[in-house]
Amino acid sequence: MADAQELGQPVTPQLAIFFVLAAIAVIGALSLILQRHPIHSALSLIVVMIALAGLYLLMGSEFVAAVQIIVYGGAIMVLFVFVIMLLNAGAEERTNVSKLAGVAGIPLAVALLGFLAAAIARSNESAQAGLQSGTLANTKEISMMLFKDFVYPFELTSFLILVAILGAIVLAQREKS
Amino acid sequence: MVPTSYYLILSAVLFGLGVVAFVFKRNVITIFMSIELMLNAVNLAFVAFSQARHQSDGQVFVLFVIVVAAAEAAVGLGIIILTARNRQSLNVERVDLLKL
Amino acid sequence: MISSLTSFLSAHATIIVYLVKIALLLFIVLTVNAYLTWFERKVVAHMQSRWGPHRVGPHGLLQPLADGAKFLLKEDPTPAGVDKFTYFLAPLMALALALTSIAIIPFGPEPLHIFGQNISLGIADLNIGILALFAITALSVYGVALAGWSSNSKYPLLGGLRSSAQMVSYELALTMSVVGVLLLAGSFNLRDIINAQAHHPERGILGWNIWPQILGFICFFVAAVAETNRVPFDLPEAESELVAGFHTEYASFKFAMFFIAEYTSMITVSCLCTIMFFGGWLSPFPASWTFTYYLPSVILIPFGLWVIWDGIRYETIFGRIILPGVGTAITAIGALLILFPPVNEFIQGPFWLLAKIFIFLFVYVWMRGTLPRFRYDQLMSFGWKLLLPLSIANVVITAGAILVWPMLKNWVNL
Fold first, then answer.
1. Which single residue of A81, A82, A170, C16 has CA 20 to 30 Å from A4?
2. Is residue B2 part of a domain?
3. 3-state helix, strand, coil in chain B (%, to 5)
4. Quick check: is B1 in a domain?
């Protein structure tokens, strides 16, 4: 098949799923840029995050995928959506970006991306990112590392969250006149 | 099996799109969301490397990145709410003077 | 022709099995949803000393059909000034997420052996079962928030914001209250959680997670009721409060989608409660009491006979034809279970699971009929100041007990 010869490897189901999820992620990111209303941009970002969670699942990191959806998609983006609703953000007005920037910039950006992709593909990263054949399950291994080697950063992040909560409450208070 | 370089290229593309959104959008909340997109792209690279080398360090670091992103989103959105209240606009081009 | 069909089927057996399972489970869940509405109306009515639906079909059993027809045929206006994409997306998202969560639930311990295939009861057996369910719960906040905002109207916006703030707050207590069960089971997988309660089959009901995790169960159940926006936590969508909350501006079929999503999440929560705290498909009787295997038949046969007897004396002709037929079918199933012991053994697991789910659904409906609702500030302070600290305390107590238990075991002969 022509596709297999171009890629240098057979088109397995995993490769097909990778391309589908990658396409969804890139389309979501493009939609984030091209949409005018911030709520549509937020929805596009949620789509990107879910696609990335699917990619993490494809790589075998099921715990990180679940945490991505629960924390990023279910808490952080909810915060964004709340703020957009509270501030009653409307659609953006037309901007006067020069057309030359678009005409010259997009091909240049694509060319730069092509060089970068070629450089990465030719590097020595011949390792295949696939399902881990380790001894422990993914969650167990992460938790072992988190609570043994990285226990100090773990406790520090709890302080960080506490500080962030206090900061957000102080910032969002109404001024007492 | 999907080669690691494919994930890295996707991560670079998403990061680049995040930078484009950061530079070209004028709504401060959308700019903030592009920062989250960049962080997600970096997370993808971390997990890809972690699985390529069969170590879990990358995934643990991804958890920390997610936590820090949460804290930053909370405080940043608080600041955005205050700025929007003071200037009655979410357009970053209007926030170019310290004077209100 | 037939041989080519069978060879095609056996070549793609796995995919076809999955598709059939998904279609069957969707059909069953939607039917259970419909009859859950009938059940709720009947039970709440009887609690209020009235009859509930009893005209459409015998005992009102065709009422869900009439409701479905109404939802499909009613006019579906779209208000002016709504954000069209989000307005159409919100009920879709709510329904899709609610139905997806049923895919993760295991319905029986042993696989079904037919046509040479081992078909497990349950669509997906995920290693992160509980986490995936929480991920779906986390995403379902969007259905509510976007519905409220996109309606371009004050009451839905306020109702949507209140409702999604409530859901996000109780999500924390929900996830923390489950950690005790996970510590006891050592895995996120739902089948492993049930098997961890089956370590001592001779204990029966005493081996279930409810006894060591009573605090966790209370926190989980209360948080789950708040999460599904049911009484007593249904202020954001109560009819006397904010008109109808976030789904005010939604008409026939889109409102039906929200409705189905709510009842499906009720079913999911009941499934989770039974799996995590009440032993799932385990029988409450000790394993040595094999005579309890006849319990399904002992329940079905008298019930079928009663339905026949009631149907013969029913007032309408339609009821006099249908009800005895249904009763005969029920009796026949009960008799079949006695006559075929392998089927009887296979059906034990799913029977107990479904019985416990039914009891939880009854408790949900019972609360709807009896309890008053919380005020919004009471609700939020309850969630943050009481429920979350209690669930965290449950985690600490459980972890401490697990550490100390081996030492205790040397002193106390257990």
1. C16
2. no
3. 80, 5, 15
4. no
